[in-house]
Amino acid sequence: MKEPVRVAVTGAAGQIGYSLLFRLASGEVFGEDTPVELNLVELPAAAKVAEGTAMELEDCAFKTLKKINICDTPEKGFDGVNWALLVGSKPRGPGMERNDLIRDNGHIFVGQGKALVRAASNVNVVVVGNPCNTNALIAQHNARDIPPTRFTAMTMLDENRAKFQLAKKAGVDVRELHNLAIWGNHSSTMVPDFENAFIGSRKVTEAIKDRAWLEGEFFTTVQKRGAAIIEARGKSSAASAASACIDQIKNLLKKTPADQWFSMAVASDGNAYDVPPGLIFSFPVRSLGDGKGYEVVKGVQLSEFVRKKIALTTKELLEEREVVKNMLMK
Q1: Cβ of 189: how many Cβ atoms within 10 Å?
Q2: 159: which residues sit within 8 A by CB, 6+ positions away?
Q3: How confident is the model at residue 89 (pLDDT cuts 50, 70, 90)?
Q4: Residue 178 designated active-site
Q5: Contact indicator for 22, 40 with CB cutoff of 8 Å
Q6: What are phi and psi of 143, to 5 degrees?
């Protein structure tokens, strides 16, 4: 057996955490020869629920699950971990403006960023809790000893949603979809780039001739899918969000073929697609296969339609950064 992988999951007693933990423990993600130690990080008030989840994990008797720790502070939870999955965040309530949500959650991620200094030097941070791009930005600014490239926000959920919608429209298996990039913010301004995506060996625009549907219904369905799920089930996405988090980790653990990419929000270096430096922005990326290295795919051809959409999501992220500027360490 290999050395254990130590994984912290915040909000471990919540719906996403519950959907995520069993797959992390099972050997699916890190391999059947890699032991996993799980730190279930929760507020003291939810620690009892986390204990119940830990009991269920034990009862599964996963061969790869080495240890479970219940942690009531991020300082305890992040100590020595290799992966920090920041899932827990305050949900948006009725009548709450997005900026209010950003401010309320911002303070959580200030504390978590500072607590991450206790993590292992090679920690990977995946932010799932919304608004995930700006929460990742806050955490990264408050953990200056950790390279910015180790902080990512999850847009695989948006990519997965977009792939299924295109597959359904084209009448093909979703496995045939590839190179579907999500640009920008995980919000209603995100840009699902159908123009550079493929169904098998054909471009999506060759397989689906209905341009009005692609620019209209497809776009808005993907952008507003989260809200539609809340309206339908009375709760936000849980299993699908957890599955997308798993997908992102798996993508980082294997080398991406040279002709493919996947979506991930990462710190912009200011040298690609006119995205200002520092923003946590979703790009098409390729993993180097070592679990932490990646590269932003350069040279993707963008139409005027997509460029305008990217400008809108960039503007939104700049506005969000302005809202939390007092939480960002200089």
Answers
A1: 18
A2: 180, 181, 182, 192, 244, 262, 263
A3: confident
A4: no
A5: no
A6: -135, 60
Whole-angstrom CA distances from 97 to 68, 94, 100, 139, 232 are 37, 9, 5, 22, 21
> What is the identity of the amino acid at 193?
D
Could you give the residue ranges of the DSSP H alpha helices within the chain? 15-25, 47-59, 74-77, 98-115, 132-141, 156-170, 204-207, 211-213, 219-223, 225-233, 239-253, 304-323
The two beta strands, 191-193 and 65-71, are unpaired
Average pLDDT over residues 133-146: 95
Which residues on neighbouring strands pair with residue 255, listed in sequence order? 288
275: which 2 tokens?
């995205």
Decide which of 93 and 210 is more confident. Answer: 210
Using DSSP, state whether 72 is helix, strand or coil: coil
CATH fold label, 5-153? Rossmann fold (3.40.50)
DSSP per-residue string spanning 167-220? HHHHTS-GGGEE--EEEB-SSTT-EEE-TT-EETTEEHHHH---HHHIIIIIHH
Q: Burial-class residue 206 by CB neighbours within 10 Å (0-12, 13-18, 19+).
A: exposed
CATH fold, domain 156-323, is: L-2-Hydroxyisocaproate Dehydrogenase; Chain A, domain 2 (3.90.110)
Residue 74: left if φ>0, alpha if ψ -120 to 50, beta else—which one?
A: alpha
C-alpha 202/C-alpha 199 separation (Å) is 5
What would the pLDDT profile of 9-25 be if each residue is shown by its tens digit?
999 999 999 999 999 99
- The structure tokens listed for 254 are 């294997």
CB 182 within 8 A of CB 263: yes
Q: Rounded to two decimals, what is the model's pTM?
A: 0.95
Pairwise CA distance, residues 256 & 170, whole Å: 25
- Would you list the domain boundaries of the chain? 5-153, 156-323
